[in-house]
Design goal:
This protein is mainly alpha-helical. It has eight helices and no strands.
């Protein structure tokens, strides 16, 4: 148990450390015309596609990065403690939230940077997973997220601030809810049962066959 907890903590710190490394590398670059933040997510632009993957690693300043570091560490630790395949979940949430923002983002001239979209995706995923999973540990984690980060949801509103990517927050939250429904909800449980062999899918190529009714 202690060994697994240590491994989870090291994985989380390595991920967050990479975000800090990108920020430190970008500091001297900001003095020139080559700013890594140009690779942020810009909706419905070809060059903005890379931002789907780069956005969580780019930050506008130290306060921006500090504000995202603590909740990111806490939520990632809770994810690794309660869900299998946490790395796959993080990648899927980042791509889903970034992809939806790229497709439907309102302002094509705005460049979105920061890990806050991923934070919202993680928070909503953990809360929704507690609802769908109904396991004690998942429910406790969901309640913990509500208590700690319930105030985050003011950031889903356009009034969140001029320089705040409320759209990134919004689509992060949507991605977290959808991914939880697909993987932990009824559909996710059905897939797990089929994969384990507990339930065999019924397939019939004869129209009107009685198997079609089940």
């Amino acid at each position: 148990m202690k060994l697994q907890l240590k491994k989870n903590l090291l994985s989380v710190l390595a991920f967050v450390g990479l975000i800090w490394a990108v920020y430190l590398i970008n500091l001297p670059l900001k003095l020139s015309d080559y700013n890594l933040n140009q690779f942020g997510l810009q909706p419905r632009t070809l060059h903005g596609l890379i931002g789907i993957f780069a956005m969580p690693f780019l930050h506008d300043g130290l306060n921006h990065l500090l504000g995202n570091t603590v909740p990111l560490v806490v939520l990632l630790m809770m994810l690794t403690f309660t869900r299998p395949n946490p790395r796959r979940i993080v990648v899927c949430l980042a791509v889903m939230s970034g992809g939806m923002l790229w497709v439907v983002g309102w302002d094509r001239t705005q460049v979105h940077v920061g890990a806050s979209g991923l934070i919202y995706a993680l928070a909503v995923f953990l809360m929704a997973a507690g609802y769908y999973d109904r396991k004690i540990i998942s429910i406790i984690v969901a309640l913990f997220v509500v208590v700690l980060y319930g105030g985050l949801f003011w950031g889903l509103l356009p009034m969140a601030g001029k320089d705040v990517s409320w759209e990134g927050h919004l689509w992060g939250a949507v991605a977290g809810g959808l991914f939880a429904a697909q993987t932990v909800g009824r559909l996710g449980r059905s897939r797990q049962l089929v994969a384990s062999g507990a339930v065999m899918p019924v397939i019939s190529d004869v129209p009107g066959n009685s198997a079609d009714k089940y």
